[in-house]
Amino acid sequence: MGLDQEGVLLLLPRLRPQGEAATLVGPLFLRSGLFLLVLGAVAFGLYHLVAAAPYGSWLHG
Question: What angle do CA 44, 50, 52 make, to 5 degrees?
């Protein structure tokens, strides 16, 4: 909560135009998507690494 320019207490968030909201959410979606893409690639690589490990090795589990 804060004060606007006239000194009135703001209880509700400022309404944003639709375009401004997209500029705030867009980078968040991009970063989330890149994080999930990297996480998926790591999981995929780890799966194949464990699957290729010889039987009885510590990595085979």
Answer: 100
One-letter amino acid at 42 equals: V
pTM (predicted TM-score) = 0.57
Structure tokens at 34: 């890149």
31-46 residue pLDDT tens? 999 999 999 999 999 9
CA distances from 8 to 4, 16, 17 (A): 6, 19, 22
Q: Is 60 helix (H, G, I), strand (E, B) or coil?
A: coil
Whether the CB-CB separation of 59 and 49 falls below 8 Å is answered with yes
